[in-house]
Amino acid sequence: MSDAKVPAAGVVESHVRAFFEGHSVEVVARGLGPDQSEAVPDLRILVVGPGPRSDSWAYVTAGCWDAMEKDGHGLEFVLTAHVRDQRFIDLMAVIAYYHCGGHQLDLEHSMPIGEPWVPGSACDHLLISLPYLHGPDLEHCPLPGGHARILWTLPVTAAEIEFRRREGHEALEQLFDDAEIVPTDPLRASVV
Predict the structure, then answer these.
(1) With 0-12 CB in 10 A as exposed, 13-18 as middle and 19+ as buried, what is 102?
(2) What 3-state DSSP class applies to 47?
(3) From CA 113, how far away is CA 23, in angstroms rounded?
(4) How far apart are CA 169 and CA 176, in angstroms?
(5) Residue 40 clears pLDDT 80, i.e. is over it
(6) How confident is the model at residue 4 (pLDDT cuts 50, 70, 90)?
(7) Taking residues 166-192, what's their average pLDDT?
(8) Is residue 177 exposed (0-12), middle (13-18) or buried (19+ Cβ within 10 Å)?
C-alpha cells in the first residue's frame, strides 16, 4: 500500500465529520466474507444522524478509495434514508463490494439490489448520481495526492432504470424533478 493510500479512509471520515458538523457520526467497521474483505479490506460505514444539515440519516462508505484509487482519484458512496437501520449499513457494504469487486461503479451507473431497498418499496436498484441532497461540499473530498468523489446511491425502480437506458440519465433526473420525488421516501411511486 502506498503512503498516499494509508490515511485515505481516515481523511474521508474527517471530511464527512466536518461536513456534517453538529450531527452524530458513528463509525461501523463492516466485516465482509473472506472474498469481499479482500476486495475492500478496510471498509467502514459512517452512519450520520439527523442534524442541522439534514433531517435524514446518511450512510457513507470509507475504504473504497483505498481499494480502487487510480492516480490519486477514486470514489466513495452515500445513501440517504429516513431512519437508522442495519439494512442500510449492510447495503452500503454490498455497494462497496460491488464497486471494488469488479464492477467499478461511476456517475450515471446503476446496480440491482436484488430485493426492495426496504420491505414494500418498488425501488430495487440504485442509481449512481451527484449527491444533490448534500451538494458539492460533500462530493469533493481532498486527499493527499488526489481526491475522493462521494457519489449518491439513489434507490430507484426497475422501470426507472429501463427508462434511463432508453432516454438517458438527464431525462430520468428531469422526471424526478418534475415529480418532486422525496428520495428518502421508501414507498415513493415510480416516476415511469
Answers:
(1) exposed
(2) strand
(3) 28
(4) 11
(5) no
(6) very low
(7) 96
(8) exposed
